[in-house]
Design brief:
The complex is a heterodimer of chains A (288) and B (282). Chain A is mostly helical and 288 residues long. Chain A is 74% helix and 0% strand. Chain A is globular. The model of chain A has no long low-confidence stretch (mean pLDDT 85). Chain B starts with a helix and ends with a helix.
């Protein structure tokens, strides 16, 4: 086959993507070296002043980053456990299998911000149903959105509701693609349900699990929509994630230069940490 | 032991189903309330707890001048942007995925896998990182606050998904298929168009659904890159939230915004049960 044809297939997509992205990335790097803000909206050059400020004088960014790590890692772990459990339960024959599969998929089809608007009324401290129902069984009003610690868990609940279906979908698709022979062999050996899971299902699912966890971590590291509507980063900065902090700096306080510094640093940290996590997970879960 | 497991299983499934359905039920109930039944005490069941009204739903089609919300235009904007960006992403992504699955590329240390990874890794990019340069970029070329500008941005969001799903899918379409077509005298484009594509329809549908989902649910870019001229659905609904919170129309508009994609859940399930997804999503 003539080798030139392959470029005709590849290049349109590749160049459109690079074409759209190249400007923003170069621009972000250049902007991060400038002092662009609402007083001096111009591309001056101030060297690495912004980076020095970030690494020496901005605990709020690092706090928001650790908060983000906590939120994304804990939601993804919960999503993995629940998603895997749900996938295992509707994998084989159960009653109303297809009905449950559809129900379990629905939340990921709904727009996060819009559902969060509903969640906000749902968790409303005096007019929402959660506190009302809890009140009937004698549990006092819980400050779902205005207590710094509980607000984090509210965000986690909403994120788990929203995205467990995605994990469920990836894992169920994986389970359905597994070969039948190992399970037959285990059945002939008379293995119990539990042992079958530990020695057959789980090892076979390891590569798919890693893929699913990484994909979810990538998406979870962008937590923003939920926080934006549910708590606006509050109370105080209790639920502020990196994206939200950058948003405040850049598009509310118009410190564009500094926001670009934050963005670029954030992106580099994300790429490095996701690569490390992928390597570590592969080592932990796939035993030769 | 087996019996205990079964009880636990059904309990867990039931509880999870309740958890998933709860916000929808609450929203449906709230959408029929009026000021009195939202603000006096928490009410659940129409007729029993409160007197239902259709006010929340009526507001949606009234023009803003007459105290309405008018979500019809944002609705069509959202449909247009999502579908256009998905279509472009699918076309370009499918072509690129076919190339990456069938041919070998070498440029320096870059191999096929690296190019595939480059495509997919665009998902890592946090929206906020792109939004500031896009904001300035689009305002320079005059596309800020326009549908076209959003389509351009959404291509970046969606093409990685199309490439990710289609590369895996093409890898499972046997190579002999195109080889036979080439021997029969097709050129590579005909082989792709007449032989490979018709055999990839399940993959294309899955990729298309995922593009539509992730296009439809995006909020952040729409929020930052548009103001008054064009509004997308999520932005419109969230704007309602920040005003004096008429929960009834808020719930009604939220329900009507998430409704179309719930149909997608049925389609996804169908493909899942037929086994078409298993390969496409690995």
């Amino acid at each position: 086959m003539n080798f030139k044809h392959k470029y005709v297939f590849l290049f349109p997509g590749l160049f459109v993507l690079i074409g759209i992205l190249i400007f923003p990335i170069i621009f972000t790097i250049r902007l991060s070296l400038s002092g662009w803000n609402s007083y001096t909206p111009e591309m001056n050059f101030i060297g690495i002043t912004n980076y020095i400020r970030l690494f020496t004088d901005d605990p709020r960014f690092w706090e928001s980053f650790f908060r983000l790590s906590f939120l994304s890692v804990s939601t993804v772990i919960l999503q993995y456990i629940i998603g895997f459990a749900l996938a295992l339960m509707v994998w084989r024959e159960i009653k109303f299998k297809r009905f449950f599969r559809v129900i379990f998929l629905i939340p990921m089809m709904t727009t996060p911000v819009i559902m969060t608007v509903i969640w906000r009324t749902f968790f409303h401290e005096s007019l929402g149903p959660v506190n009302d129902l809890l009140g009937h069984i004698g549990i006092g009003p819980i400050l779902w959105l205005s207590d710094p610690v509980i607000a984090k868990f509210t965000v986690i609940i909403v994120e788990v509701w929203q995205w467990t279906p995605f994990m469920f979908l990836l894992l169920l698709a994986g389970l359905l693609s597994l070969p039948k022979e190992p399970f037959l062999a285990a059945a002939i050996d008379g293995a119990s349900t539990f042992r079958k899971f530990v020695y057959v299902t789980f090892p076979l699912m390891a590569p798919i699990s890693i893929g699913a966890i990484i994909i979810r971590l990538i998406e979870a590291s962008k937590i923003m929509d939920t926080v934006f509507v549910l708590t606006s980063g509050g109370p105080g900065t209790a639920t502020e994630t990196s994206s939200f902090y950058i948003y405040i700096k850049g598009l509310r306080e118009f410190q564009m230069g500094y926001a670009a510094t934050l963005s670029f640093t954030y992106l580099v940290i994300m790429i490095i940490s996701l690569t490390i996590i992928a390597k570590v997970l592969t080592k932990l879960m796939i035993k030769e | 032991m087996e019996k205990l497991y079964k009880i636990l299983k059904y309990t867990f499934i039931t509880l999870w189903t309740v958890f998933i359905v709860a916000p929808f039920l609450w929203a449906v109930s709230t959408s029929f309330k009026d000021f009195q039944s939202v603000n006096s005490k928490v009410t659940y069941i129409p007729w029993l707890d409160f007197e239902p009204t259709l006010e929340g739903w009526r507001v949606l089609v009234k023009s803003p001048a007459r105290g309405g919300v008018d979500i019809v235009e944002p609705y069509f904007n959202s449909i247009f942007v999502t579908c256009t960006a998905s279509l472009i992403s699918i076309i370009l992504g499918t072509l690129a995925a076919y190339a990456l699955s069938r041919f070998t590329f070498k440029a320096g240390f870059v191999r096929n896998n690296d190019i595939t990874f480059f495509f997919i890794s665009q998902r890592i990019m946090p929206p906020i990182v792109l939004s500031i340069p896009f904001f300035i970029f689009l305002s320079t070329i005059g596309l800020l606050d326009s549908l076209l500008g959003l389509v351009v941005v959404y291509i970046v969001l969606l093409m990685p998904i199309a490439v990710w799903i289609m590369v895996d899918f093409f890898n499972r379409v046997p190579k002999e298929l195109d080889e036979t077509a080439l021997i029969d005298g097709c050129n590579p484009y005909q082989a792709f168009y007449k032989v490979v594509l018709p055999n990839s329809i399940p993959g294309l549908i899955v990729a298309g659904m995922f593009c539509i989902i992730f296009g439809w649910i995006d909020f952040f870019f729409a929020f930052i890159l548009t103001f008054t001229e064009v509004q997308l659905l999520p932005v419109k609904v969230v704007a309602l939230n920040s005003s004096i919170t008429p929960w009834w129309s808020l719930s009604a508009s939220a329900l009507i915004s998430v409704a179309p994609l719930i149909i997608v859940a049925f389609v996804v399930e169908r493909y899942l049960s037929k086994g078409n997804l298993s390969g496409a999503l690995k």
